[in-house]
Amino acid sequence: MSKISIIMPVYNGESFLSNTVNQILAQDFDEYELIIVDDGSVDKSFEICNEFAIKDFRIKVIQQKNKGISAARNRGLKEATGKYIAFMDQDDEITTKWLKIMYEAAESNMTDITRVGYRIIEVDQNNNMIAKFDSVTKTEIINKSNLLNEFSLFRDHFQSVWNCLYKKDLIEYSQVKFNEEMRFGGEDITFNIMLFPFINRVAKISDVEYIHYKRKNTSTSVKFNQNRIDSILMLNSIEISIISNIYKGQDKNKWMISESTANLCLLISLICKSGSLTMNEKKEYLKKLRIESTLKQYKMDINTALFLINKYVKRYIAGYLFKFKMWNLLIKLGEKRVGEKI
Question: Helices 249-272 and 302-311, interaxial angle, to 10°?
Answer without folding.
Answer: 50
